[in-house]
């Protein structure tokens, strides 16, 4: 039996179980033994983090070679136009090379929980929301992509990894899924 934990990682929580600096970690929310993150979500990002007790599944989910799509709601400073969205769709030049093309849509503000602390707003600069799907997982990639096209990220919430969805989980909540084998997971969630 393989366990998968879908966790809504709150803002300011590390994607690990221990920290020598006594910052908030997964251990503050998840008491299940022998599960480990399949990929990462930065401390200042929120949303879906997948944990599993299968090393093979952990590698399948987190290895960029598998090009597993990850979808984010991204609040940015400013209002991107067609030019910025087009650049994101074609791929953006970053310090470590050009990104793979992303699926991007400008969206209405999604229904999300309040973040604590709240996002810093500037009265003189409007903000807007994007739905952004990427097919790789470089360090701080979404933040670097939006900054590269002139729209810094204010808030970043991952809503899906493959076909695993955040759904109605509130920050700090998790649910456990159980599967008989990896092929069942790949067939349903990782295509």
A few lines on this structure:
With 191 residues, the chain is of the alpha+beta class.
Explain what this protein looks like in three dimensions.
The protein is of the alpha+beta class. The chain folds into two domains: 1-66 and 163-191, 2-Layer Sandwich (Alpha-Beta Plaits), CATH 3.30.70; 69-161, Alpha-Beta Plaits. It is 17% helix and 31% strand. It has four helices and eleven strands. Strands 1, 2, 3, 4, 7, 8, 9, 10 and 11 form a nine-stranded mixed β-sheet that branches. A two-stranded antiparallel ribbon has the order 5-6. The radius of gyration is 17 Å and the shape is globular. The two termini are 21 Å apart. The model has no long low-confidence stretch (mean pLDDT 93).
Set out the fold topology.
Layout: E1 2-9, E2 36-37, E3 46-52, H1 55-62, E4 70-77, H2 82-90, E5 93-94, E6 97-98, E7 103-107, E8 127-134, H3 141-148, E9 153-161, E10 164-165, E11 174-179, H4 182-189
Parallel strand pairs: 3-9
Antiparallel strand pairs: 1-3, 1-11, 2-3, 4-8, 4-9, 5-6, 7-8, 9-10
Entry keywords:
191 residues, alpha+beta, Alpha-Beta Plaits, 2 domains, two-stranded antiparallel ribbon, 4 helices, 11 strands, globular
By DSSP, the count of extended strands is 11
Label the overall shape.
Answer: globular
Strand content: 25-35%
Count the domains: 2
| Main sheet: strands, sense, barrel | 9 strands, mixed
Order of helices and strands: EEEHEHEEEEHEEEH
Give me the number of helical elements: 4
Under CATH, the topology of the largest domain can be stated as: Alpha-Beta Plaits
Could you say what the CATH architecture of the largest domain is?
Answer: 2-Layer Sandwich
State the low-pLDDT regions, or none.
Answer: none
Calculate the mean pLDDT score and round it: 93
What helical percentage do the residues reach?
A: 10-25%
CATH superfamily of the largest domain: Pseudouridine synthase I, catalytic domain, N-terminal subdomain
Distance from N terminus to C terminus (CA atoms, Å) equals 21 Å
Structural class of the helices, strands and pairings? alpha+beta
Reading off the top of the CATH hierarchy, the class of the largest domain is best stated as: Alpha Beta
Query: What Rg, in angstroms, do the CA atoms define?
Result: 17 Å
């Amino acid at each position: 039996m393989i366990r998968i934990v879908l966790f809504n990682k709150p803002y300011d929580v590390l994607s690990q179980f221990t920290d020598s600096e006594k910052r908030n970690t997964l251990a503050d929310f998840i008491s299940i033994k022998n599960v480990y993150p399949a990929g990462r979500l930065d401390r200042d990002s929120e949303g879906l983090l997948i944990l599993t007790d299968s090393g093979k599944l952990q590698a399948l989910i987190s290895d960029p070679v598998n090009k597993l799509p990850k979808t984010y709601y991204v609040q940015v400073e400013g209002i991107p136009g067609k030019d910025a969205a087009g650049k994101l769709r074609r791929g953006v030049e970053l310090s470590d090379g050009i990104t793979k093309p992303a699926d991007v849509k400008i969206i209405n503000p999604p229904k999300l929980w309040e973040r604590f602390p709240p996002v810093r707003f500037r009265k003189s600069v409007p903000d807007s929301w994007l739905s952004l799907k990427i097919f790789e997982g470089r360090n701080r990639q979404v933040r670097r992509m939006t900054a590269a096209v002139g729209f810094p990220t204010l808030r970043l919430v991952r809503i899906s990894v493959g076909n695993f969805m955040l759904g109605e989980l509130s920050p700090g909540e998790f649910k456990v899924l159980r599967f008989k084998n990896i092929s069942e997971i790949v067939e349903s969630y990782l295509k």
